[in-house]
Amino acid sequence: MEEAQNLPLGDRERLFGYIEGGGKVILSEPQALLTEAPKMPGLDGQKMSKSYDNTIGLREDSESITKKIRTMPTDPARVKRSDPGEPEKCPVWQFHLVYSDEKRKQWVQQGCRSAGIGCLECKQPVIDSVLEEQKPMRERAQQYLEDPTLVRSIIADGCEKAGKLAQETLREVKEVMGLNYS
Ligand code: SF4
Fold first, then answer.
1. Is 50-146 CATH 3.90.280.10?
2. Does the chain have fewer CB atoms within 10 Å around its N or its C terminus?
3. Which numbered atom of ligand 1 lies nearest the CA of 119?
């Protein structure tokens, strides 16, 4: 692959032209594979980032996650429990958009705007959902924490597979370019 990247521009154009003309894509451009929630907000509603100190670790312990979500900022208009709020101005709402179904979203919208629910009450289903989501991750990770040689052998297997695929791609590229030297 490194050799293909280092091709002079003319050769690259000829290569891609040949490949496109032949209807065979050898160097296909990687595309993003996104989940339903490709952007996960941070605890303050900004992009989740370690440098913003607004993250939730994938295997963070449940007490710490609970505390972080319970102390998340909310709509500043809700100073008292009896003050109505606006979900669109609250970072917790962005979490509901990711974790809650339509029924719960309506419960939040109505309860927030009418001061019918308190912020801690509103945050609890988010806490439950995050903990529920992370439970299998913690369980799956445990065997690798207990035996790191498993990780090393997975990496070694992956390297071997990737090396074989790269060699095959390079062979095809050389073939279509008429570079049959080894
Ligand atoms: S009720 Fe929920 S959406 Fe409304 S301000 Fe409080 S935490 Fe945010």
1. no
2. C
3. 6
